[in-house]
Amino acid sequence: MDYGKHGEAIRAADAAGALKPRVSAVEGDYGLDDAYGVQSAYVAAKSADVPVSGFKGAVTAAAAQQAFGLGEPAVGVLFAPGKLAPGVSKPLADFNKPMLETEFGYRLNRAVSEPVDDATGLVAAVHLMIELADAGFDGKQTGVDLIAGNVASSHYIEGPEIDASAALDDAAVSLSRDGETLFAGEGRDALGGQMQALTWLINKTVALGRTIGTDDILMTGALGGAAPGATGHYVAQFGDLGSIEFDLT
User: Does the predicted TM-score (pTM) go above 0.90?
Assistant: First the structure.
């Protein structure tokens, strides 16, 4: 498979705000190694113009993996232009198929390029996060298409820093739009626990030959599911840990 060709096609669609092409429409069935090969080619092409700002876990819930025909979670790359501040008002026209998720984000106290046994001692900071993913493809994508397309990475809101010693797994998390609850979950929804999810994300990221720097944000996966974006005022509540508000217009 020509990873460079497919990666450049996805990058060009991304730059034009167009639907992402599905590699499966050209290549037929293909596997995880090829999917990450295309993703890496896309990341290399895009990072020539804009800096990487972090990494994300995706499909961390068993039901999501089953829906996409995957046997494990997935990882992708975040880019600096995708970072938004709490209180932002973001046009829906900036997305093809926006999907909203509540998450936790982490920064590490040292650069990591090798696998780790436990991420607990590496945590320098924890943030409340919102992901505004874009799952727009030019047809029904497979799980490996999702990975090749950088697992719908688009924008994210970095919320306030919180106490890293808080009981994150027990945190009650919800997202509402104009007062209506869209979904609710808890911190352990990502791979059964935050440190399990963070350790997995670190190890999968470095296994792909990527180095995690101390400025990179690491998003460990959706808590409570995902909701399609629509116009309105959103409030993400993270129990007693705080909240994030934003608008889609």
Answer: yes
